[in-house]
Amino acid sequence: MFPTAATAERGQAGESARRNQVFWFCAAVVWLMPLMVVDLTTYLVLSVAGLAMGMLLFLTASGLTVIFGLMDVLNLAHGAFFAWGAYAGFSVLGLLDGRGLVENAGMGQSVLDVLLALLAALAMGGLLGWVLERLIVRRVYGDHLKQILITMGASMVLAELIRVVWGPNQEAIPVPMTFQGSYDVLDVVVNKFRVVAIVAGCAVYAGIMAVMMKTKLGIIIRAGVENREVVQTLGYNINRIFTGVFMAGAALAAMGGSMWGMFREQITPAMGDENLIFALIVVIIGGMGSVTGSFLGACMVGLAFNYVAFLMPKLALGVNILIMAVILLIRPFGLLGREL
Amino acid sequence: MANASTPVQAERLAQARGRYARPSFAVPILLLVALALGPVLMPSFRMMDMVAKVMIYAVAVASFDIILGYTGIISFAHGMFFGLGAYCLALICHHSGAPQYYHLPLAAALAVAISALIAVVIAVFSLRVKAIFFAMMTLAVAEFAHILGYQWSSLTLGEDGVSFRLPGILAANWSGGSLLGVQVSGRLMAYYLILIGAALLFVGLVRFVRSPAGRVLKAIRENERRALALGFRVFHYRILATVFGSVVSSLAGVMFAMWLSYVNPDTVLGTPLMLNILLMVIIGGLGTVYGGIVGAAFITVTETWLPDLLKAGVGMLPKAAMLVRLADRWVLFFGLAYVLVVLFFPKGVMGSVREAAERRRLAREKQS
Description:
- The complex is a heterodimer.
- By secondary structure, chain A is mainly alpha-helical.
- Chain A has twelve helices and four strands; from the N terminus they run αααααβββααααβααα.
- In chain B, 77% of the residues lie in helices and 4% in strands.
- A two-stranded antiparallel sheet of chain B has the order 1-4.
- The chains are: A mainly alpha, B mainly alpha.
């Protein structure tokens, strides 16, 4: 089945544009709905928390969605990259903490610590992504069934390897004091790390969009999403691009994992599975293959999760599944997805 | 062959005539006899426990094969449906206080109804778009069910799980004396009930894949567009297959709860169960139904003996923390085995056996 040429990002005309307006209006109304039950301050606190969670989800989901769009691979091992990234960051911070460079470090040192941890996570994710793509995923291109089965197995193996290397228990991540605690803006309590997460998430989104829209690599990737064969016939080595995109996606997920770990200040080997579920919901909501879609989807999922977790903790994941079902009902290919 | 007007009819007649002479008829009968005589010949509880679990898993795996092997749809909620059935029986028996015989069929009916409803809803939402959406959606729903199992403690008793007593002669403390030197206990009765239930469900599964609907499913798996072009409602058939498989899985779950008299969220709703089912179906062979028995037997037996074996192996080696941890993590070896099987042995045991038999038949036909 050949993908149709028009991407939803280019916008649609006439009636569908009006339908889009109605859709976004409804979305805005739903977004403001929690205000009926909680007061404004709580609402703002929850919104910031939701956006921060959304940004961290976006880091995982963006890789997942581009890998699917370009390579037609559904990578269920993506959550494992997330967990490995968190553990890589944990190891680096633990090492630095052993030299007394974390807990009470100054501003400059703290920023350096966090950057080092993120770098370690990126490197770890990239490495794992490379190994996995070369060793396993490459063998099952074009076969969804096998991809899902085999990446599920790989994710299980990677999670177990974490338990072997770092032990099966929950670990506490040492986080620099500078990044702990929160700001107080007009009674709205904003955790410092949430601000970092939101800034980082937006930066990554801007970065991905810049690469996709402004560089030659981005053009090749977008062309590959549209039609792989034609890109190949034009003389580009699509396999190298596949490996690169897979590594980049894995690295982003790993970075998200280490930020998640620093934000929660604790990590468990099972954290990847939970994250994968959310990332899949985000990707379905946003539309498979669309980066902007998963950005929006991640915000929706993060916000909805936080509002509902505040009101009815048990149903927090349930409401996300509900959102996903509703989106599938009214827009079967996701917010910005195109027909597969 | 007077009454066969087309080659297809002729072939079917030939198949029907030789039906009782082929190993595909004799082997299941022999297996059934062996399972029925097993507890009498080898009265060991550990053995009986293992065989009962193999039978239950075999049904769950074979029903998964309907979805995965015959229809080509991946469901990560198969473990959830299994758990749903298990919880149906456990909660009815637990909350009623005094378990009665009619609670068993009641639990089975409830399990069928609930799982059919959930399966239809998931299928309608996700299969409408694309078959792989089903995989993602079921993954999320299964996780949600696991969380509910933990947190909805007023109903499910949360993390502690539900332990309950079974009615009458199935109860663990019932004893009917001794017959031919075998202790007739509640466990033995439960074993035979499971044997009967599993056999019936298995026959149902085999009949399903050989029915016209089963043929259509195979056609859809092989070439969706062509099946569509031939006028089959692909969407409806896919829903039918996923719902049927899920319902049978929930019935296997009812039997599982009956055997253990105890359920908790991690054993019947968690991902390890789902991964086990996946592993079993792959090792047994996709699209073979009987592969379910092979896979279930292989994994259950390994699961029973492997941890001990690994521990014994590590005990002989010099002390190394990493090695001990490695031995504790036998799921790791399962995972590796699973990936390797998917990569290098994708047909599974039954698939390979069938292929070999087919090759031999072709060779023989060529000779004659």
